[in-house]
Write a structure and sequence with these properties.
The chain is of the alpha/beta class and 715 residues long. It has helices spanning 3-13, 37-46, 57-74, 97-100, 136-151, 203-214, 234-247, 262-265, 277-293, 319-330, 352-360, 421-429, 441-445, 475-487, 493-504, 509-530, 562-565, 591-596, 606-609, 624-647, 655-687, 702-706, and strands at 49-52, 88-93, 116-123, 126-133, 160-163, 169-173, 219-221, 253-257, 299-302, 336-340, 371-376, 400-405, 456-460. Bound molecules: 4-O-methyl-beta-D-glucopyranuronic acid.
């Protein structure tokens, strides 16, 4: 039956749509009956019932999750029980009477409140599966893990799992404004209905909390880093407190973005100088007021002296002065400050890629203990590909947090299928050599390299009010991958994709394999059709939609494209070696040396660090111009391949999912060709060389692309 007819019948019969078509609302937590009969039978034999020990709001969540999960997946009522018998699942804390005396191996002892274990064992001569933790939240994580094992059709015969989070603060950052516009959000409005809060609690707040808890996210920054001071007024704090109450049983703390000039804007002070006693007192009072409403408030994120935001430098003070003032106010309550290192100033004539390092490196050691410096993955701004940020490894005295972007500001919004697991993995695995070989970014941000108490990761959320949360179904995989990597930065992008596909689309190998291949290749495809060979920041002005390498002559040159690609008749690329901006000197050896020569610089970064002639010989034997064309064309072609792959899944996956992704892939094909044509034609005006033989010529002239205008593109 065709999809439209099915939808129509469903509407008439008022059957829940989820029963026949999948609209994506349930994310990766579907709990539909296990389709594989063999597995289903194994599970039914091994799970006769379950027992949840203890009482607390989190325990209630656990009970609901096990009830829905087990009954849904096993397609029959699985009874909850107060006693256990053979083949039972027992979820309880390690100090519960029933569990405290069982002899579990040593590795299960002394685990923290977020750690958990899942083990198949014998209890009173009965075979049981125990899920346990020292804390309620660890237990909840363990339960989600156990359900994931079923969802992904893994055996539960002999479980022996111990997990603990690699990173302490695993946060989403919502760039959501109070009037509900999500900056760089492409999935509808902000999910926070500020107007109706605190009295109206939308059901999707719970879904949001569940989804995050299922991947170990333990904090959320509710409002945009371009912060509105109003968030700190009683009216809004009460609303934030209502959300905190909902999230608490799921182990999710609420954090807020604080506007540095709040003491002036909502406090009636004349200044917000961090060294002024009245300003310091104002923040102390404010923090006290917040903790009275939200006793487990996490702390503040601050964007200061960047892109027009106020900050300590307005008073001639340093970033450390600003961060420390807030840290002192938060300290008695256990709160933290996440101070962003995303600072650059067009009035400073230094390469933008260098500015954060120049600013922050000298401050290493000057921050209070409860300050983390939050650093974007690369030195410019969430481009399709950037080398890792040189600050990683350069501030050993300071806990550095990773900031990844989940929302696809520079990667095709929510229209393009781009799995970001591979991007995150590439950055986390990068070796900074700060303490010699093996000093990976992952080890810096998880705190292990420098032995830090605090560690953190922030992901700029891609959620919105769209029915499927993220606009593109595959946007969910980026939220998922982010959470999984925050939990364990050593995980592989491929294994995460595998899990996600199984839980979201299908457990059938003939679906998993092609979809995984598509996902794993998708980011490289996008790099190729947007910004190959280290190009960056050549997208549409302001909204960042589509290609616009021609952007120039704006009021600040570091927001133009020509600033970054530097194309001319002599060649293309940003010279960041000694003969240029010398940004390379911010990296440790041997990276700096390796990247300094075009011969040894990895080609994916070559135009990030080098200005090369159009005739420069690449490793492929092609000239730089030919290689550039080749990459743009391969990129665009690869999207057509994705479309083909997807087409072959028709009939094997849910029809609504199939149709939704199909439509978006068709747009992606169009837009990839648009990127290719616009960029190749534009760069050709400098190279003055023909598009290589065998590559189809763009069907429109450059002027056509330059004249395209998108006044209401989301931004
Ligand atoms: O990437 C730029 C975005 C801005 C964003 C800024 C930041 C929240 O274009 O929209 O502002 O980065 O990270 O602060």
């Amino acid at each position: 039956m065709n999809l439209k007819i099915k939808l129509f019948i469903a509407l008439i019969l008022t059957i829940p749509l989820s029963a026949i078509c999948d609209d994506g609302y349930r994310l990766w937590l579907k709990y539909d009956p296990i389709s594989d009969n063999l597995m289903l039978n194994e599970y039914r034999k091994s799970i006769k019932g379950y027992m949840v020990l203890g009482e607390s709001p989190t325990i209630d969540v656990i009970k609901a999750e096990l009830q829905n999960g087990l009954s849904g997946l096993l397609d029959r009522q699985i009874p909850a029980s107060n006693t256990f018998s053979d083949h039972f699942i027992i979820a309880g804390k390690t100090d519960h009477d029933l569990l405290k005396n069982i002899s579990l191996s040593k590795k299960y002892k002394n685990i923290s409140s977020e750690d958990y274990f899942i083990v198949t064992t014998e209890l009173e001569n009965k075979k049981v599966t125990i899920i346990s933790s020292n804390g309620d939240i660890g237990l909840l994580y363990g339960v989600f893990h156990f359900l994931k094992i079923l969802q992904t059709h893994q055996s539960i015969e002999n479980l022996d799992i111990v997990e603990s989070p690699g990173v302490k603060l695993r946060l989403l950052n919502h760039w959501d404004n109070l009037q509900r516009r999500a900056e760089r959000g492409y999935a509808g409005c902000s999910i926070w209905d500020w107007h109706k809060l605190p009295d109206y609690i939308h059901p999707y707040y719970y879904q949001y909390a569940r989804a995050n808890a299922s991947i170990g996210i333990n904090g959320t920054v509710l409002n945009n880093v371009n912060a509105d001071a109003l968030i700190l007024t009683p009216l809004y704090l009460e609303k934030a407190a209502a959300l905190a109450d909902i999230f608490r049983p799921y182990g999710i703390k609420v954090y807020l973005s604080a506007r540095f000039s709040s003491p002036i804007e909502i406090g009636g002070l004349k200044i917000s100088d961090p060294l002024d006693a009245s300003v310091q007192q104002w923040w102390k009072n404010k923090v006290e007021e917040i903790y009275a409403l939200i006793p487990d408030f996490g702390g503040f994120v601050v964007k200061a002296n960047s892109e027009g935001q106020p900050g300590p430098q307005n008073y001639g003070r340093s970033h450390a002065d600003g961060a420390n003032m807030l840290a002192d106010a938060l300290k008695p309550f256990g709160g933290v400050v996440m101070w962003r290192a995303f600072v650059y100033d067009h009035n400073i004539k230094e390469d933008r890629a260098k500015q954060a390092y120049t600013e922050f490196k000298p401050l290493d050691g000057e921050f209070r203990e409860n300050v983390l410096v939050q650093v974007k993955n690369g030195p410019i701004d969430f481009q399709p590909r950037e080398p890792f940020h040189p600050l990683f490894g350069a501030m050993p005295e300071t806990p550095l947090m990773m900031e990844f972007q989940i929302t696809q500001e520079y990667l095709g919004f929510s229209t393009h299928l781009v799995y970001l697991g591979t991007l995150y993995e590439e950055v986390l695995d990068a070796d900074t050599y700060s303490r010699g070989k093996g000093s990976t970014v992952a080890k810096i941000i998880d705190g292990s390299l420098e032995n830090k108490e605090f560690s953190g990761m922030a992901g700029v959320a891609n959620t919105g009010t769209d029915r499927n949360w993220t606009g593109h179904l595959f946007g969910q995989s980026n939220w998922y991958a982010y959470g999984r990597l925050a939990w364990n930065p050593e995980l592989s992008a491929a294994s995460i994709a595998d899990e996600w596909i199984r839980m979201t689309i299908s457990n059938q190998p003939d679906v998993i394999n092609p979809v995984k291949k598509m996902m794993m290749q998708s980011r490289e495809n996008t790099v190729n059709y947007m910004t190959p060979l280290g190009l960056h920041h050549i997208m549409g002005w302001d909204h960042h939609y589509g290609p616009a390498p021609w952007i120039k002559d704006k009021f600040r040159d570091d927001w133009t494209s020509v600033y970054y690609h530097k194309a001319g008749q002599d060649g293309i690329g940003f010279d960041r070696t000694k003969s240029g901006s010398d940004a390379l000197s911010q990296y440790f050896e041997p990276i700096a040396r390796k990247f300094a020569s075009p011969e040894t610089c990895p080609e994916e970064y070559i135009l990030w660090f080098h200005h090369l002639s159009w005739d420069y010989k690449m490793k492929s034997g092609r000239t730089l111009w030919e290689e550039l064309c080749h990459r743009y064309y391969t990129g665009a072609e690869s999207v057509k391949d994705m479309l083909k792959t997807w087409h072959e899944l028709q009939g094997k996956i849910d029809p609504e999912i199939f149709d939704h992704v199909m439509q978006l892939l068709k747009i992606q094909v169009k837009e990839a060709v648009w990127w290719r044509n616009a960029c190749v034609l534009y760069f050709q005006t400098f190279s003055q060389k023909p598009i290589p033989e065998g590559l189809e010529k763009p069907d429109k002239p450059l002027e056509y692309y330059m004249n395209l205008d998108f006044p209401y593109a989301p931004k």
